[in-house]
Write a structure and sequence with these properties.
The protein is an alpha/beta fold. Helix content is 32%, strand content 16%. 30% of the residues are buried.
Length: 190
Amino acid sequence: MSGRVDLIYVDADVHVRGDVSAPLEGLPADRIGAVQDEFNPAVGQCPALPGVAERWPHLVGRTYFNAGMLWVPAPMLDPMRTGVQRALVRGRQYIKHNDQCALNLWLLASGAAHPVEPVFNRFEVDRFLQRGDWVRRVLRRPVTRRDGHVVHFVGAHKPWMRSCPGTEDVRAYRQQMHRTLRHLAGAGAR
């Protein structure tokens, strides 16, 4: 390896099922690795970043990224933090999904995004299918596919909550969480 220091950010509502270091291989030192959002795939074609398409029509169709998994070379941490903070303040009228929209505003302005394959941030959709078929109309992939290296739980019911329906992915997340908590307790964490 090059000896470069990188950070892999993983949301708490993400279950890692495969090797997430692969995107670091082709990641330029001046880019942030991110995966296109499955429910909000592009600017002006989804509810995310309301008003951006009207204000900057040249951005219509540009990729909107999910912030649940990020691959960041250490030198990009400060520019990303500063850019997202500015976007939160200066672009608050365009923000619907908090820090994720702010991140996308900065990525659009800076050109610092490096697309990562979709298997590194797949939404867990089984719970949505229990309530209706709308998810089939929104996703661009077969909803029964299990090729994700990462399963991201979206919506109000997170897998650590008792109110979250017990799908196969939720059970796998909970098992991993229990193993992790036992490991931390064994290491002396409180």
